[in-house]
Inverse folding.
């Protein structure tokens, strides 16, 4: 039996035409009947690193009876010269979250996946205490169960006050070991199924993993990396998925 949280995440490969560029993580979010792919904005466009893909591929499971059956589904990032993704912005500047609406009519007829919904977002910030146990579900360095096309998970905890914008930015901190390729992964907290109303995906979607956080004055020869990460609050998805 496959745990539902593993079916909510998908590996993202970025391309410029036919040239592979990098790997990242993403997950599915559904609002009403519309299906979206969520990831970090810098996965789709990042000027500092000169990362400018024009399409992405995601892995889709195509046979509920055979978890190893999967296909690569290509999504163009531009149409008629305009970007197709939506990205967020607030008073502090850009938010490192992006969504791409998936044309459901173009999907394979048979699919096996799970999608978060607005009901998976926390209703109150006091539901989540500092130190709460979390999971980051993704594809670090592109690593996965390559036979079954499944993500791996890393344990994390909430490392800053949940609900406060850390240093005025729209994210909170997690304490977890992460790597390149985890960008765009969902940051989730388990909830008791009896207390939840959203089917067989009993996880609260708290954030979208963005990047490791470091200290500018850290001496790499004397000081270990902090091991802290930025996770953008997932409620931005309500704005990005509005009609």
């Amino acid at each position: 039996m496959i745990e539902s949280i593993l079916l909510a995440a998908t590996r993202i490969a970025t391309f410029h035409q036919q040239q592979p560029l990098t790997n990242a993580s993403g997950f599915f979010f559904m609002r009403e009947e519309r299906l979206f792919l969520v990831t970090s904005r810098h996965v789709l466009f990042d000027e500092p690193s000169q990362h400018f893909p024009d399409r992405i591929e995601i892995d889709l499971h195509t046979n509920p009876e055979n978890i190893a059956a999967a296909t690569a589904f290509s999504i163009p990032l531009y149409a008629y010269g305009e970007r197709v993704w939506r990205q967020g912005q607030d008073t502090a500047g850009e938010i490192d979250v992006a969504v791409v609406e998936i044309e459901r009519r173009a999907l394979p007829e048979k699919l096996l996946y799970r999608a978060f919904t607005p009901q998976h977002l926390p209703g109150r910030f006091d539901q989540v205490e500092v130190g709460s146990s979390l999971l980051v579900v993704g594809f670090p360095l592109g690593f996965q169960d390559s036979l079954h096309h499944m993500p791996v998970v890393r344990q994390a905890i909430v490392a800053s006050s949940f609900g406060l914008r850390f240093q005025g930015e729209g994210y909170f901190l997690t304490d977890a070991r992460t790597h390149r390729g985890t960008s765009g992964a969902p940051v989730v907290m388990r909830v008791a199924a009896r207390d939840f109303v959203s089917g067989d995906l009993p996880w609260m979607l708290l954030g979208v993993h963005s990047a490791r956080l470091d200290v500018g004055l850290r001496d790499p020869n004397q000081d270990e990396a902090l091991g802290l990460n930025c996770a953008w609050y997932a409620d931005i998805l309500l704005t990005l998925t509005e009609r």
